[in-house]
Amino acid sequence: MTAPYGSWPSPFTAQMIAQASPRIDGARFVADEVWWGESVPAEGGRVTVRSSTGAEILPAPWSARSRVHEYGGGAWTADADGTLYFVDGADQRVHRLSRGGAPEPLTAPGPAYGGLRLQRGRLLAVREDLRSEPHRRAIVEIPLDASAAEDESAVRTLVSTTGFVAHPALSPDGTRLAWVQWSTVRMPWEQALLHVAPVDGDEIESTPTRAALQPEWVDDDELLYLDDPTGRWNLQRLRLGHPATALAPAEADTGGGLWVLGNRWYQRLDDGRVVAVRTDGADEIVLISRDGEAVELLTLPISAGASIDDAQGSRVLISGAGRAVGAGLWCVDLDDGTITTVTGGAETDARWVPRARAVTFDGPHGPVHAFDYPPTNPGAAAPEGELPPYIVMVHGGPTAHVSGAASTAYAYWTSRGIGVLDVNYGGSTGYGRPYRERLDGQWGIVDVDDVIAAARGMAEAGLADPGRIAIRGGSAGGWTVLCALVRGGTFAAGISRYGVADLRMLAAETHDFEAHYLEGLVGPLPEAESVYVERSPLSHADRIDVPVLLQQGSDDRVVPPSQSEAIRDALQARGVPHEYLLFEGEGHGFRAAETIIASLEAELRFLGRTFGFQPVFHAES
Q1: Which residues contact 598 (CB under 8 A, 6 or more apart)?
Q2: Dihedral, CA atoms, 374, 589, 551, 518, nearest 10 degrees?
Q3: Where are the domains of the chain?
Q4: Strands 419-424 and 366-373, how do they pair?
Q5: For the domain bounded by 34-344, which CATH number is listed?
Q6: Overall pTM surpassing 0.90 (yes/no)
Q7: How confident is the model at residue 619 (pLDDT cuts 50, 70, 90)?
């Protein structure tokens, strides 16, 4: 059939997208089973734990979700006998669930826990206590006899700081602890130190590092960890008391922004080999031999969001997504080459789901990297001469990253005849420290220049209708959306999800983890207050002259509703077409199925009105 772009019939409904490809949240070998965490959008986005036997290990209403550092992570682990340890999203206490039993608390009410690690029968965690000033974080050992369930003092504090900590690792003999630590005035990708200390002492040995990640012990005196002394996160080998040396260095990143506590970019096997993620735009999985030779595992379909979740013998659990497969979890036997799909990972139909195309554009600050998803529908074509509308997607962070992967969420748009361009603007990870530091002091300038360069590059190449390019982003991405609309001249519409509108308001209201983030992105207060005012979209809302859709979670503690509501009020005062949707019970990011459905359908309806096409909402084959 021939129909205008945007109005093609599509089998991808908002209901389907809400249920498709649930987020994988860690995985473990447990006896003869594989367990993994999985989000359940139909149940308000709670995180359950499932088994390869088909059983649900963590029943409703329990949810394995941490709020440490606000973004959480590492909210569950398990032992070889099938005992689950998890942080419940409702009370932030650590609980234990034995096979056939009911969850029982191991910690007292009050602090929040995350980053759980069970090592040699000892349960370690990151604890965050916001009840007093200054707020404190600690690495703790939680007794397994439930003695701390009512007595908070029974939790053993191993490290305590007013800064931030992550990645606790016990030496094989249990006498030393390694961890990563950074101050409240730096972000972990700017500077994070590797520390080692006796478990029963306070003599901390610090290793000079730039942005350390994920220490793991080789033996009682040797560590592996990640750092980027040359501008790329690579594996480092450290014999205590000696300088560190790089293991299989490459012009790619094994590591990324430490937003959550459960990240695993590599796993060491018992025989000394290492399986690791390498990112240079897209992800690849490599096997590093004992002598440092790296070989890519070409048979794996993963190219985005890769995590090396666990290792047992010669087997490794790897989660992620790929250019031709949806998000999933795979078990790889490195000796016999067997690859078993544990969950998800279904191959997508290229007739409906476009393969991401890596593209680079010339920008005023250097190259701009992105992934293009063109309109794709086997049963529809546009009238001759019509160019497609496009959505430029802007990720959050801003120190984050997107990799090209098959996406039913993007197929929701592309199958209807709307192209998607996913931009890794300057400041993104995955291209090395210089690309990441391009945004230092330039937030609201470099990111905006880069998304404009990408949008114009698509139009100049004849791939997008220059009069029908929208921009969409959430959180820091929402900030870039609003800044780009203030700049004007490129985007005909904007969709901001829980976006930042006023920098001074953000500095006053945001949470501890990002309390000083703006100092690196913009400048210190009060010295740079004039810059904060000048850069903020709210200061120049009178320049926005295109339709805007604002979406916000009522319980967002990272970017509170006051930010979106301030922009809403400014647009309303000037009569600029806009819509404001407040989703009750949602935080920073939408998790509930009903929210995802309402949000997607509102966005499609909004673009139809703005770009002059009649969207099709119902499924057609």
Answers
A1: 14, 581, 583
A2: -100
A3: 34-344, 357-611
A4: antiparallel
A5: 2.130.10.120
A6: yes
A7: low
The per-residue pLDDT for range 21-47, each reduced to its tens digit, is: 678 999 999 999 999 999 998 888 899
Q: Angle at which helices 446-460 and 476-487 pack, to 10 degrees?
A: 70
The owner of tokens 């931009």 is 423
Element (H, E) at 452: helix 446-460
pLDDT in tens, 380-395: 999 999 999 999 999 9
pLDDT interval class at 362 (50, 70, 90): very high
Architecture of the domain whose range is 357-611: 3-Layer(aba) Sandwich (3.40)
CA 487 to chain centre: 28
Q: Which two tokens stand for residue 59?
A: 């029943």
Give a three-class secondary structure readout of 7-23: CCCECCCHHHHHHCCCC
From CA 372, how far away is CA 351, in angstroms rounded? 16
Which pLDDT tens digit goes with each residue over 247-283? 999 999 999 999 999 899 999 999 999 999 999 999 9
Q: Among 526, 493, 490, 494, which residue's Cα sits nearest to residue 507?
A: 526
Comparing 37-46, 161-170, 174-183, 411-420, which segment has the lowest mean pLDDT?
37-46
Nearest to 232 by CA among 217, 216, 249: 249
Q: What angle do CA 7, 457, 471 make, to 5 degrees?
A: 50
**Cα–Cα dist 454/446, whole Å:** 12
CA 330 from chain center: how many Å?
A: 20
SS3 205: strand
Q: Are 341 and 330 in contact (CB under 8 A)?
A: yes
Three-state DSSP at 600 gives helix
Among residues 166, 257, 277, 174, which one has the least CA distance to residue 217? 174
Closest alpha carbon to 477 in 407, 419, 393: 393
- State yes or no: cis peptide before 168, omega within 30 of 0: no
Has residue 435 got a pLDDT over 60? yes
The answer to whether 499 and 473 have CB atoms below 8 angstroms apart is yes
Q: Identify the CA nearest to 110 among candidates 95, 130, 125.
A: 130
Q: Which residue has tokens 């260095």? A: 249
